Amino acid sequence: MHFHLDADTATFRDGVRDHLRDVLSPEFEERIYRSGVAHDDAFAKGLVDKGYFAPCWPVELGGQNRNAWDEQVLKEELMRCDAPVYLSETTRMVASIIREIGTPELKDRILPGAINGDITIALGFTEPECGSDVAAAATKAVRDGSGGDADWVINGSKMFTTNGHIADFIFLLARTSPDKPKHKGLTMFLVPCASDGFEAQAVWTLSGERTNITFYSDVRVGDEWRIGEIDGGWEVLGLSLRYEHASGWGPHLIRLLNHAEHWAASTRSDDGAPAIANADVRRRLARVAMETEVSMLLQRRCVWMHEQGDIPVAEGPMSKVFSTEALERASQDVVEMVGADGLRSYLEPTAPEHGRFEHSLRFSLGTTIYAGTSEIQRTIIAQRGLGLPR
Fold first, then answer.
1. pLDDT on residue 242
2. What is the 3-state secondary structure (H, E, C) of 343-360?
3. CA dihedral sign, ordered 18, 19, 25, 31
4. Which of the two residues, 372 and 261, has the higher pLDDT score?
5. What is the CA radius of gyration of the chain?
6. What's the pLDDT tens digit per position in 198-225?
7. Chain centroid to CA 41: how far?
8. Of all residues in the chain, what percent are helix, strand and coil, respectively (each to 5)?
9. Fold agreement between 122-231 and 245-386
10. Per-residue pLDDT band at 1 (split at 50, 70, 90)
């Protein structure tokens, strides 16, 4: 097993870097940060034009037939630059599920627009009273009428529907059989956000990101918007969580480390020596560097497993939980290393490294919650990786 990139993948990565260097100007970065929204239509269209939106997809569906390593280095470069791609990622994830199990009509209706940037899809899983227990969803979908053309009427709410205020659709988990066990009575729908009765209200996070609480008040959708079998939503949800749980956050560590090293090399102490001459500074940088390396290796192991035809059931959560908790540790370590100046605000002109240390400290706290909390990840590792009982 090795994780060295071949020449073609390295060339592809270099092209991605060149493109991001051209489009991610400081002005663009500030505008995205101040908006709190990790999406920009023009940026997403630029990825499509360059072939960087869904490179692994077949050419006939808008992709380039590239391999998993090409897709991995693309993800790494986008994350390392903190590019605004979250809505693009959720759109692509849901499009992959529709491609796998959707009806021919739904595929024709959604896939072309999703892959060329004309359609966007946000996730509607978590509910205000359920926390990480997604299967406890109380949002209801009730059949109105009989026969295959009968509508579903949806009532309820979802929390942390990031980008739900700008997306075209919500990939929604709803309860369709309240009398069945909670994992057995769920169904997945694709809900058009233009539907009557849909509303998104802003919720601002510690990192400055806008997410949403979304409300569904007698929202009517046809059965053609159902994805998977009735009461088979937990299995459909499993496909999406398989993608999310195999995430890695090592590139965020790389960006933090690069800024920390630059600060250490360019900052002088009272005696005129560079900060990096201090043994404590070197120790902290070394610790961040080691955990960055482990984070990247854990994520690339997941890619290698996919390439071998295996599903990283436990290995994906291992990558996610280690890299996010490492990012949290590293962010705290770096701020302690820099001192009080490290808490100056993001983009504040006098802040070290433009305030990226302070932002990383705030941002890192949420990463241990995204795509399943660390507790959920550890449960998956224990049960599915180690075979331990519930």
1. 64
2. HCCCCCCCCHHHHHHHHH
3. negative
4. 261
5. 22
6. 999 999 999 999 999 999 999 999 999 9
7. 17
8. 55, 15, 35
9. no
10. low
Asked whether the CA dihedral 48, 52, 54, 56 is positive or negative, the reply is positive
* Residue 314 DSSP symbol: T
Amino acid at 342: G
Using 50, 70 and 90 to split pLDDT, how confident is the model at 370? confident
The pLDDT score that the predictor gives to residue 282 is 98
Encode pLDDT of 45-71 as tens digits: 999 999 999 999 999 988 999 999 999
User: 245-386: which CATH architecture?
Assistant: Up-down Bundle (1.20)
Question: Which residue type is seen at 130?
Answer: C
Amino acid identity at 233: G
Q: Which two tokens stand for residue 1?
A: 């097993």
Q: CATH number for the 122-231 domain, one of 2.120.10.30, 2.30.110.10, 3.30.70.20, 2.40.110.10?
A: 2.40.110.10
- Residues 12-39 as b or e (16 or more Cβ within 10 Å = b): bbeebeebbeebbeeeebeebbeeebbb
Tokens 């899809």 locate to 121
Structure tokens belonging to residue 235: 């299995």
Q: Where in the chain are the domains?
A: 7-84, 122-231, 245-386
* Nearest-5° Cα angle at 367, 363 to 371: 145
- Mean pLDDT over 107-126 rounds to 96
Q: Which amino acid is at 159?
A: M
Burial class of 377 by CB neighbour count within 10 A (0 to 12, 13 to 18, 19+): buried
pLDDT more than 90, % of the chain: 84
As given in the structure block, the two tokens for residue 341 are 């100046």
**Mean pLDDT, to the nearest integer, of 320-341?**
97
